[in-house]
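Q: My labmate handed me this sequence with no annotations at all. I'd like to see what the chain might look like in three dimensions before we decide whether it's worth expressing. Could you predict it?
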Amino acid sequence: MTGARILLISGSTREASTNTAVLRTMRLLTPPGVTAELYAGLTGLPAFNPDDEDHRPGPVTALRAAIAAADALLFCVPEYAGTLPGSLKNLLDWTVGGGEIYGKPVAWITAAPTGRGLGAEATLATVLGYVGAVAVEPACVRLAVHRDMIGADGLVTDPAVRAGLTAAGAAIAAHLADAVPRSDAAPRNSP
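A: Here is what I predict for the chain of 191 residues:
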């Protein structure tokens, strides 16, 4: 797949987040011809207010433009109190009325230790399904990433995790290459 763009979205606001480290590493492991951009505006999004839909704040307009410009979205999300962190749910709430995610391929990586992260994963799948995203199941993976697997450069060093990330990227690229444009897809709204 040449020229495909994947938007990487971390659900963590922590500076030294393992979830963000996973996506920084993913950015370097994408297949040839695929570019990946790490979304960095999570902490700058205002609290969702449906009254602002007609006069969206600048950070929301930028978010929607980044989503609309991407061919696929890849999330890596921590679990807080058994579900998505509020900051990521806020991001997703801002996308409900826009249609930018409708019909768009999405995947997620759960980097939590074995047995954890399932609540966040399930909630993310529910919300993405609600907005009409298309889950790329082979790219939705669980890769336990521990802090000692992150190098001083902020990248994942573990070969098995890196292999899992490479496979997830390849699955997204294969899905995009095989995708047939849908005539019933909602039009991408411009910001």
